[in-house]
Design brief:
By secondary structure, this protein is mostly helical. It has 2 helices and no strands.
Length: 99
């Protein structure tokens, strides 16, 4: 076990003073800068992802509107076709009665 004299010498040494005065503040500054950079990077990525999600939501809405339009066109086409078939059937039935 180190004696109290050794610990006192170690804390008063020039190297220990240099570490506590220069290296530790520099290390804290570097770590703080890295953390700030990482947080800013995460925020910019989140913002970019939100923009992409909004773009995808807009595309989905446009596709949904196009599908609704196509459905209504198909419905109208089917109604017209059924009406035409009914009209032809009535013409055939009335022609069969008059013979």
């Amino acid at each position: 076990m180190p004696s109290p004299m050794d610990i006192e010498k170690a804390t008063e040494s020039t190297f220990a003073k240099a570490v506590t005065r220069f290296v530790m503040p520099l290390l804290v500054t570097v770590i703080g800068s890295m953390l700030t950079w990482m947080v800013n990077d995460m925020r910019s990525n989140q913002s970019r992802q939100q923009d992409e999600m909004q773009g995808l939501a807009n595309q989905v809405q446009r596709v949904d509107a196009k599908v609704e339009l196509m459905n209504s066109k198909v419905d109208n086409g089917l109604i017209w076709r059924i009406t035409e078939l009914e009209r032809r059937l009535l013409n055939v039935e009335s022609a069969a009665r008059t013979r």
